[in-house]
């Protein structure tokens, strides 16, 4: 009878430990992912540095030229339908940076985008000169004729309503991320206490390292696939500029893969050292 009770308790403890391990994997993976996203994808300084990289600058230039071509059509400027060479990188970069500053960072929900439109308007008036393309100069000349309507034409032509929507989605993500991170940290305290109660010191470290190994594997697989998406599929046509985001984010996803490799290697070594002989 006593032996049966002990066997049942051991089985319950093993089941609880397996549950704790799965919970810890989820908590660590979620926490690292959300903290990393706050420091990268939702950080305007970081993203502007990413856009300065040669490969990403090409993507940003293509995105802004596409919006600029729509703007040219809106105000009736001369255009040839080719969006690839209207603006140079020197001209698209300040527009892209203005959009990044507006969309990302610490701010509350956006209700207007007139200030962003004015920033873009000033870039067009100041950065386009006699060395610019004929289409760009035509846009500048037409824009000079507008007064107050120039702002609204920029809002319409550059589809700044979608940029405002993206900014509000980013604010929601920041709030939700912080709440989830706090919940994960609180949950981790409970899970670790339960594991310490059930396991000895060596077993505890061994189980923690096993969980981190799983986290590293998930990072390698999941973010490796996400980094490969723009290479496998044509993502440019996705709504709200998601395709352009995926192209720029692919390099950042690779950094998460590297983090996963580091986590896996270090935890695998410690896991092996704490394995019962």
From TrEMBL:
Membrane-spanning ranges: 23-42, 173-192, 204-226, 238-271
Assigned keywords, A-Z: Membrane, Transmembrane, Transmembrane helix
Protein name: Uncharacterized protein
